[in-house]
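Q: For a teaching session next week I want to show students how multiple molecules come together into a single three-dimensional assembly. I've collected the sequence lines for a complex. Could you give me the predicted structure tokens for the whole thing so I can convert them for display?
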Amino acid sequence: MTPQKRTTTVAAACLVVSMAACVLLLHHIDEIRPQAGVDDTLYINSPKVIQRASLGFNGLMACVYWTRAVQYFGYRHAQNERTYNELAPLLEIATALDPHMIPVYQFGANFLAPAPPNGAGEPARAVDLMQYGIRNNPDNWRLYYDLGFVYYTELRDYKRAGEVFELGSKAPNANPFMKLLAAQMAEHAEDYATARMLWMATYESSTQTDIRQNALEHLRSIKVDEAVTSLQNAVTRFIQQSGRAPASLWELAAAEHLPGIPVDPDGNPYELSFDGQVLVQHPDDFPFITKGTPPGYKRSGLAKFHTKD
Amino acid sequence: MKARIGYIAANTFREAVRDRVLYNLIAFALLLSGAAILVGQISIDIERLVVVNLGLTAVSLFGIVIAIFIGIGLVSKEIEKRTLYTVLSRPVRRWEFIIGKFFGLAGTLVVNTFFMAIGVFAALLYVTHKFSVSDAFILVALYFIVLEFLIICSLALLFSSFSSPLLSAVFAFSLFVIGSFADDLRGFATLTHGLTRWIATAAAYLVPNFSTLNVISAVAHQQSIGAQLIVQNTLYALFYTAVALSGAVLIFERRNLK
Amino acid sequence: MTAIEIRGLEKIYTVGFLRKKPRQALFPLHLSIEDGEIFGFLGPNGAGKTTTLKLLMGLVFPTSGTARILGREWTDPEIKAQIGFLPEQPYFYDYLTAHELLDYYGQLSGVPAKQRKQRIEEVLVHVGLTDVKGVQLRKFSKGMLQRAGIAQAILHDPKVIFFDEPMSGLDPVGRREVRDLMEQLKQEGKTVFFSTHILSDAEALCDRVAIIYKGELRGVGAVADLTSTVQGKVDLVWQGTQVPASIKALGAECHVTGETVRAVIQENQQDAAIDALRRERLRLISLTPVRTSLEQYFVEKTQKADSTAGAAV
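A: Of course. Below is the structure for the complete assembly, covering every listed component.
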């Protein structure tokens, strides 16, 4: 005869109900509680202390902090936060624990340097991080790329960027575009073609989803900027020729012998304001454009990152 | 029924005491007073931080070790020594035995923690010379640590109901470590895709979440803890303990005591 | 009334991890024990005695079959208040004193506090542990532990008491005490069920016995019935070392041990033998009828089982 059936049924029911309750409660608790590393409450900021506290399990702790860094940034970015104070310490701790964790440097270059809300806005610290990485991994061309990237995109120090790209092109197995980029820095740093080259390089050489998405967004925005510039030039030509602004883009298209109204990468046609400004229909869809936004436009809401081009 | 559970609990407590478990308090007292005196002489501004951090961490670690070491033998020792036979030949239900053992061990830890709490506050008073309002939240941290103990006790008991002491210790300790990184486990899970994501997320929820019960850092920095968190944490700990105890009861009910 | 009724209790263990082999620890057992009797459960080690007891106590779950104790299902927890159990070579909580141990068990058995106090004192006297009631059990000798075990088994005044090898590890004095105690329990109207492999104890104590071998019941009956086959022989013991020729002529087996001689002769020869002794002026010490001992019955049942193994199914 089997053991007391009643006890079994009660215990089984209790187990199932309690487990369900646990899961539900954890959900609630997540909401009221700052997630580890997400809130600005990283008490131990010193990599040295954490290293000692890791009891020798540096590698594992490095992974933990790296994961926290990604989560921290991702979560706050999704909430459209403007401060990311803990990102630099988290990345610094991770690399202090494991200086050879290359993906961390890449992440730092892409998200530590840019201004909020798409980055932490700390380009100087990003440079420090890259240089630390290079010191510890002198033969890894990617780190030179990341450093050059920071100089180019945020600090606009094209001379230094060129130097770094040049240095990096000499590293073993360096990607050929390093040399190309070095050359471009000299004369054509501010060209759209150069920017495109750089972002393509980032997109192709990284395997991290966040970084690729970011690069994609930049490429889209470059397309828009280029298109708007070229259209704006056409408008100027039109005004010079006919003495007035075109009534609509149709008129401009006809004058320029274009097959139709140009469309942005999302397929929406560009627009023409009453005073001859070329505008993008939905500026919010292109977080990094510098042209084609109406005057007094303030970026609102979340930066919507597309998942695939 | 309740009386029997009480008797078993009392006996378990008595066993722990006579096993000289409470002597750990001496080691704890030495550690804490040594630290307090040292820190009081070295530097300024972080004495409170050190005493609270060290004190609460020691309470937590000492307790976890005791919970695991005693917990793993709760059932297996009685089977090995056959003391269980004379107990179960009496009108004691098997589930009463499990629940009684749990309360005995939990009770031991609560008493232990009570004395340790006095030690922590004494050391704190020594270095800061007076209490502030925020020190009340140290009590909350201690309460959360007790909740951790409940979970660990129930897990140790669960493993003890079917496996050898050594294996039980390994399992219980592993769950404690993983549970302390529960948040990170959830973080890892969000970075994966597909089936792995399901498995990782399931694991992250199954594992006892000790990160939420660990507010030592916050309290050391004199942060306050919300009432809602206290309530939710209490419920979580109670339900999780219920899961482990139900499991222990289910296993023990059908166990052939060779 | 039947105190214990075992209806086909069976236990098969599956041994092995990957290739599970079944091991039949107990074949379906049918047995009835009456109220107020001392019942002996005999068998060599590994025969299934302890398995049977564990099944009855609910420590192990049967593969099939049921049992009734005092008219209720054996799994009924309330029944446990009416039964006592002494396991084989027991340990107890060695950090407790005898008094604390009995108090704890009394609590678990539901004996009310006031009654408990009194009862503990009584029982301690009964088993002769009053002097050491404040001593921790870790300091007890084997014999003392056994007595403590008996104490906890009878503490709550149960109607049926189960003993598993109660004499094991005891010196002759201890065994005598346990025997006396079991006799006393019977006089108090209790039912005693005990397992043992020492036949002389069973012979002395039991009203009825069952013999179990390799998990199977081989024989049940009253001791007197099982051993009553009077062989018609007589056991003659006299002083001295002489064996009279006339006794030798009777064809008797004679053994000289020390200062006495022992001879086994036919019953109808006993008068002639006594005359022979008187003629030789040898002093007769004893004259007893020879009965089959329980041992012989036992050996017969178990050895016969071995030789006919497989034949009876």
